[in-house]
Amino acid sequence: MSHSERAAYRDRHPQCQLCRRRPTAAVDHDAVTGHVRGAVCRSCNSWLGSMEAALRVPERAMQQQAAYLHWKFEADGTAALAHYAGELSYLGLTVKEFAGGLLAVRRLLVVPCVYWTDQAAGPARETEWTKTGPLADAEEAERHHRRLRSACGVAVVVTAFEPDDGVNSPSPRGLVKPFTGSPQHHYGSRRTALDRSGRPPGGGQQGPGGPGLPGRA
C-alpha cells in the first residue's frame, strides 16, 4: 500500500476501529500476509504491536509490554488474557490461541542469566552490563538476582531467560525479569486493583469487546 493509499484509507476511516475513541494515525496490517486489518490510533497501533511481539522470540530483549503479558499470564493464567478479548478478537485470535502462543515462546526461552550494571541512569543501548550465566535454573538465577539487588553500588539487576542457541550476549535478551520473587507475588496487588475497578491498572481503556492493555491513556 502506497503512502497516498494509506492516507486515503485513513480518510475513509477517521476514527480508530479498535478503541473507537481517537482519530486514526496508522493503517494496521498483518506483518506476515500484508492483509490490512483496519485504521487505528497511535496508542492502539503500539499495543497491537506489543501483543504480536509477545508471540515472537526476540533477537534482543523483548518489548517491555510484551514481557508484561508473559509475566501477567504466568501470574494469573488465561484469566489475565480475558481482559484483552477486544484486542485479541481484532487480531483474529482467541484467548486460548494467544495463551498457546505465549507458552510456545516461553518454552524456547529456557536459559537464565543475570545481568547487572552500576550505571544509575537506567538501561539503554549503550549500557555496559556484567553477566553471570548461563545458570542451572531459575532458582539459581533468583539467588544471584537477590544477592546483587542488595549489594552496594549495583544500580540495576535483571534476570533474562534466553534461547538455548549458544549466543553469549553482552546485554539482556529474551524475556527479561526486572523483579525478584514470583510473578504471582509481584502482580498480586495489581490483580486486586483490577478486580475492584473492572479495568487494568494504569488507565486501560475499553475496546470493542474488552478493556485495553494496561497503561493505555
Automatic annotation (TrEMBL):
It comes from the Bacteria. Residues 163-217 are annotated as: Disordered. InterPro entries: Endonuclease_7, Endonuclease_7_sf, His-Me_finger_sf. Residues 200-217 have a biased composition (Gly residues). This is Recombination endonuclease VII. It comes from Streptomyces marianii.
